[in-house]
Design goal:
Layout (H helix, E strand, L loop, with lengths): L6 H14 L11 H40 L4 H10 L6 H10 L1 H11 L1
Protein name: Large ribosomal subunit protein bL20
Family: Belongs to the bacterial ribosomal protein bL20 family.
Function: Binds directly to 23S ribosomal RNA and is necessary for the in vitro assembly process of the 50S ribosomal subunit. It is not involved in the protein synthesizing functions of that subunit.
Length: about 110
């Protein structure tokens, strides 16, 4: 009895990888083994990047809050400590937005914790 090979599934599997490799340079886009490796590596980078994005945004927010707080004579750590002490539960994303786009509202928050 001849060996059964499911060429429909194999083709679909390859087609899926080649679709994901679209736009890659050279053999990475059209040679099966190279494309498969390139796509797997790209998926690892994408997974890692989703975690890094959160870190990067938190660092950006902290920088913006620090700049806003220093305009009013406080450091970032003093400001955040005062917020916790006064039970003001604004997260860093909101505080950074206030510091950047609504300086008068950020000043009101700073004055409340001073």
């Amino acid at each position: 009895m001849p060996r059964s090979v499911n060429s429909v599934a194999s083709r679909a599997r390859r087609k899926k990888i080649f679709k994901q490799a679209k736009g890659f340079f050279g053999r990475r886009k059209n040679v099966w083994t190279v494309a498969k490796n390139a796509v797997e590596k790209a998926m690892q980078y994408a997974y890692r990047g989703r975690k890094e994005k959160k870190r990067n945004f938190r660092a950006l927010w902290i920088t913006r809050i620090n700049a806003g707080a220093r305009e009013h004579g406080m450091s970032y750590s003093q400001f955040m400590g005062a917020l916790k002490k006064n039970n003001i539960e604004l997260n860093r994303k909101v505080l950074a937005d206030l510091a950047m786009n609504h300086p008068e509202a950020f000043k009101a928050v700073v004055d409340q914790v001073k």
